[in-house]
Design a protein that fits this description.
By secondary structure, the chain is α+β, with helices and mostly antiparallel strands. It folds into 3 domains: 96 residues, Helicase, Ruva Protein, domain 3; 99 residues, Lysozyme (Orthogonal Bundle), CATH 1.10.530; 60 residues, no CATH class. The strands form 2 sheets. A 5-stranded antiparallel β-sheet has the order 4-6-7-3-5. Strands 1-2 form a two-stranded antiparallel sheet. β6 and β7 form a beta hairpin. Keywords: Signal. This is Membrane-bound lytic murein transglycosylase B. One of its GO terms (molecular function) is peptidoglycan lytic transglycosylase activity. InterPro entries: Lysozyme-like_dom_sf (IPR023346), Lytic_transglycosylase_MltB (IPR011757), MltB-like (IPR043426), SLT_2 (IPR031304).
Length: 322
């Protein structure tokens, strides 16, 4: 009786996991991909048969940790002495490439470094999920964004062939982002650059990753030499502010006119927005300029952009003090 019960439980568990995947969508994907890319359905089915549905991926994307974090907690993850020292080491090890990439693109070195530092701890934490499993799980088991992840799966199959990636072994985040720069497959195809004009290898080459990060930021209209952010000082109590958006719409002078002034000297009268970060019971107020907005094109989070900026600045200060 015990054996029968265990068998029944195993069958029920298998059935439950299988039921999480939209098999009709899988078959439609196979048919469409094979037709569009001159492949046989058997080839694509064999690849997808090798993918595994992961319930913990669904759990993580349904309740992302960042959504429950204050800026104080978020900042403490990235602004550690250990990560800053790792950034200094990474900068020094790849100094020549970093300087050339920055000169060629106009993107500040500390922004390139800050992004790689926040994304993967300078390559130490690239993700532990097979990219194929992640995109399969989300493409066919997460209806809320299934269309997006099926598109990414399509791009991943193309990318694996053009870049010679082992489709069954490349690991990344639970969302399918990969390499030093945590590019999704579509971003890999659109923005990846090779530092030495060869094949862009974002999985193993820090130089290619830096070149690709800089290219992404440049394409999103980074303004060379322009400010990113500075603290906003309230010289008097302000009642109710209009809802703030990440993309600056007002001029800095619009804020200074109501006695909200920048802590640092800012040249000219650039467009600005007010960034409000919850930090425990307190709130931090910052001006976000257009370059701050550009960083949020990499990850649409004001906390992410601020962490990138502050980590990059801290690393730059230590490098310059050497």
């Amino acid at each position: 009786m015990r054996i029968l019960t265990l068998t029944a439980l195993l069958f029920l568990s298998f059935f439950t996991l299988s039921a999480q995947v939209d098999k009709t969508a899988v078959e439609a994907f196979i048919t469409s991909f094979a037709k569009e890319h001159n492949k046989t359905e058997a080839e694509i089915r064999a690849i997808l048969d090798g993918a595994t549905y992961k319930q913990d991926i669904i759990d993580k994307i349904s309740k992302p940790a960042e959504g429950t974090m204050t800026w104080e907690r978020y900042r403490k993850i990235f602004m550690t002495d250990e990560r800053i020292e790792a950034g200094v080491k990474f900068w020094n090890e790849h100094k020549e490439a970093l300087e050339k990439i920055s000169d060629d693109t106009g993107v500040a070195k500390e922004v390139i470094i800050g992004i790689i530092g926040v994304e993967t701890y300078f390559g130490r934490i690239k993700g532990s999920y097979k990219v194929l499993d992640a995109l399969y799980t989300l493409g066919f088991g997460y209806p809320k964004r299934g269309k997006f992840f099926r598109s990414e799966l399509e791009k991943y199959l193309i990318l694996a062939e053009t870049e010679g990636l082992d489709i069954n072994s490349v690991q990344g985040s639970y969302a399918g982002a990969m390499g030093y720069s945590q590019f999704m497959p579509s971003s890999y195809i659109a923005y990846a650059k090779s530092y030495d004009e060869g094949t862009a290898n974002l999985i193993d080459s820090p130089e290619d990753a830096m070149a690709s990060v800089a290219n992404y930021i440049k394409v999103h209209r980074w303004q060379t030499g322009a400010p990113v952010t500075t603290k906003a000082i309230f010289k008097r109590d302000i009642g109710k502010l209009n809802k703030q958006v990440l993309r600056p719409k007002n001029s800095l002078s619009d804020y200074t006119a109501i006695d909200i002034v920048p802590e640092d000297q800012i040249e000219g009268n650039p467009k600005a927005t007010l960034i409000i970060l919850e930090s425990g019971e307190e709130k931090e107020h910052w001006f976000g300029f257009y370059n701050f907005y550009v960083i949020t094109r990499y990850n649409h989070s004001k906390m992410y952009a601020m962490a990138v900026h502050q980590l990059g600045q801290a690393i730059k200060a230590k490098v310059e003090a050497q």
